[in-house]
Design goal:
mainly alpha; 3 domains; 4 strands; elongated
Length: 263
């Protein structure tokens, strides 16, 4: 039987004659005492089998898991129901039950449940349940997550790019906003478009402009030299960020000079 110390994360292997139900064990690494139930080996199957699903207590377990996970959100009352059921079946030999008991003991060891730990419990429920339940519950979890309030990290990223902090966005809306921000042309790209009089491309994405520019310069390297000459004569060291600084169609005043270098 395997047991992980909740204090130092040391993994212990207990002799089979000590693996008879819950017991207190001392960690040889840090001396901490904890209740050992036995941990499954990494990769071990914990999904309930067809035979296990026919057992009355497992039928009850499945109904409980489906009920608390069906809306994609776990609250304190639901976690308490799960804990109560597990406390009443703590000596079960069913791998799925042992797996969930171990998880809940670890998660609740410090008396609080973090958002990351709630997510871990949700994934554990999905891992335990057979596919006919798992797919619907996973979809509900994903929907609840993306329809929840945007994270602080998302809002920070939007504010750093736009200068203003939005309010009332969902995670999905914030993600879509960041996609638009990161995909829209950069100020430096807009300068290049103005220089070459191609503002018709200003509504395309950053990657599309990069692809166009690569082909455009490859066709005539003098075009890029014209851009470099314009920057040199106008004191742009690469730190300029105002697209309006570049006159639209300014390439005409420089391209003749640079093409002469390629003759």
């Amino acid at each position: 039987m395997l047991h992980r110390c909740p204090n130092c994360e040391n993994m212990m292997r207990l002799p089979d004659d000590q693996a008879k139900g819950p017991q207190w064990v001392s960690c040889p690494s840090c001396g901490n005492k904890s209740i050992a139930l036995g941990e499954l080996l990494p990769g071990a199957r914990v999904t309930l089998t067809a035979a296990q699903l026919k057992l009355p207590e497992i039928e009850e377990f499945v109904v409980l898991l489906v009920n608390i996970a069906s809306d994609g959100v776990l609250d304190y009352e639901e976690l308490q129901k799960l804990t109560d059921w597990l406390n009443g079946h703590i000596q079960s030999e069913i791998p799925a039950v042992r797996y969930m008991v171990n998880l809940m003991l670890r998660v609740c060891a410090d008396g609080k449940v973090t958002e990351q730990e709630l997510f871990e419990i949700q994934l554990a429920i999905e891992r335990i349940l057979p596919k006919q339940y798992r797919t619907r519950i996973a979809e509900a979890r994903q929907s609840a997550y993306y329809n929840g309030p945007a994270s602080a990290a998302q809002l920070d990223a939007i504010e750093s790019c736009t200068g203003s902090r939005p309010f009332g966005l969902t995670r999905r809306e914030a993600s879509e906003a960041l996609d638009r921000i990161y995909n829209r042309p950069s100020n430096r790209q807009l300068m290049v478009l103005r220089f070459f009089n191609r503002m018709d491309l200003a509504t395309t994405t950053r990657s599309q402009i990069s692809g166009w520019l690569d082909s455009f310069i490859e066709e005539d390297p003098a075009r890029w030299e014209a851009w470099e000459l314009f920057k040199a004569e106008n004191g742009d060291d690469g730190s300029q960020r105002d697209p309006s600084w570049v006159p639209i169609g300014a390439v005409q005043a420089y391209i003749t000079r640079t093409r002469a270098q390629f003759r």
